[in-house]
Amino acid sequence: MKKIIQVCSLLSLLFLFTAVSASAQSTLGVDVEVPFAFNIAGHSYDSGNYILKVTKFGTVSGTLSIRDPKTDELQIVLLNANGDESADGIKLVFDTIDGRRFLTKIRTPDRTFALGRSKAEKDAAKTRDAARSETSSIGSGADPF
User: Is residue 19 part of a domain?
Assistant: First the structure.
C-alpha cells in the first residue's frame, strides 16, 4: 500500500511539473514578407520572406528565431519584455539609423518584446544623436564650442 501511495504521489508531481512548464512557455510563429533590407543583432538580411517564431518564457523574457527559407539559415536572439502595448498578431517594429533598418521590437497579442542592440546599432545611434545634438545647438544660437 505504501508503494502505491508513493507511485501515485510521484506521478501527481510529474503531471504538475509538466503542466507548469507547458504553461510557462508558449510559441507564436508567422511567415513575414519584409519589403526592405534589415538588421537583427549584428546580422543583415535582404528583403524577402522569413519565418519568425517567438517563444515566451514566463512574463519577462523570450527568444526570437528567424529562419531564411532560401538558405535555411537560423538565428536566435534573446528578447526582453517591454511595457509597450500589445498587438493583434505579431507586429515588427523597425528603427532607421543612417539609412539602415534595425528590428527593435516585436509586438505579440500578449506583450511587446524588445531586442538587444548590436554594437553597430549602438554606434550608429550615438553618431545620429550626436549629429542631432550639434544641429539643435547650432540652430538655437548657442555656441557649440
Answer: no
- What is the distance between the alpha carbons of residues 68 and 75, in angstroms, rounded to a whole number? 9
Give the confidence band of 8 by pLDDT, cuts at 50, 70, 90.
Answer: low
pTM for the whole structure: 0.65
30 found inside a domain: yes
Half-sphere exposure of 81 (CA within 13 A, CB side): 12
Gap between the Cα atoms of 133 and 118, Å rounded = 22
**Containing structural domain, residue 54:** 25-135
C-alpha grid cell for residue 75? 538565428
Do 48 and 35 meet the contact criterion of CB atoms below 8 Å apart? Answer: no
- Is residue 20 assigned to a domain? no
